[in-house]
Amino acid sequence: MSNIGLAVAAILLFSCNSMAQKSNLSVQEFEKAIGQKDIQLLDVRTPGEYQSGHLANAFLADWTNQQEFIWRVTALDNSKPVYVYCLSGGRSDAANRWLHKNGFTAYSLSGGINAWQKENKPLVIDKPVEQMSKEAYLASIPKDKTVLVDFSAQWCPPCKKMEPVLEKLEKDHGLKFTLLKIDGGSQTQLCNALQVDAFPTFILYKQGKPVWRKTGIVEIKDFIDRL
């Protein structure tokens, strides 16, 4: 290889390493960055790890479940930066590389939650909630009304994407229906009983009976047609 070729290769290698370093933030840099507006915070640990303590307002997309990870992350806004963390940094670095390859601007927390806790930074620990039985759930659905049930979770990116759709559905159309929201992230027993294994899941009831079910992103026209 010529001297020019070696120089170009060295520059490219330096650029790649610089990009990797810039996208890997210290605890202080990460904390400052996520305090800004119009950012997206992503926890790529397992649901169990998330429940043991997570950063406030973090979405969840388990890196070890690639199908679920991709499905949730593709609902994020690629015009806004994504700040990623895991337990010690390995999974978030891998997720960070995936995000960059797929058109996102992303940054990962160096050392993960372990480093965050060493700096005595706050974590949110979700409190257990009283579980709703299947019988109580069915009893809460009026038999004389059309009811659309939204099983969602605060940490679910596709659920967040559906919020303005549901708001528009309620405000912009004179449809006679009741929207019932269930926090599927905490009502795990009810989700198991109804075989709701992904969020968001929508179930439409007419005269107290389920007539339609859909999981994932739903176009407003589909709702209108069903209602």
UniProtKB/TrEMBL annotation:
Name the record gives this protein: Thioredoxin fold domain-containing protein
Keyword terms of this UniProt record: Redox-active center, Signal
PROSITE patterns given in the database record: RHODANESE_3, THIOREDOXIN_1, THIOREDOXIN_2
Every Thioredoxin domain range: 123-227
Coiled-coil regions listed: none
Signal peptide as annotated in the record: 1-20
UniProt keyword Protease, yes or no: no
SMART domains reported in the protein's UniProt record: RHOD (SM00450)
Domain Rhodanese span(s) in chain numbering: 35-125
Cross-referenced Gene3D superfamilies: Glutaredoxin (3.40.30.10), Rhodanese-like domain (3.40.250.10)
Organism: Niastella soli
Pfam families per the UniProt record, alphabetical: Rhodanese, Thioredoxin
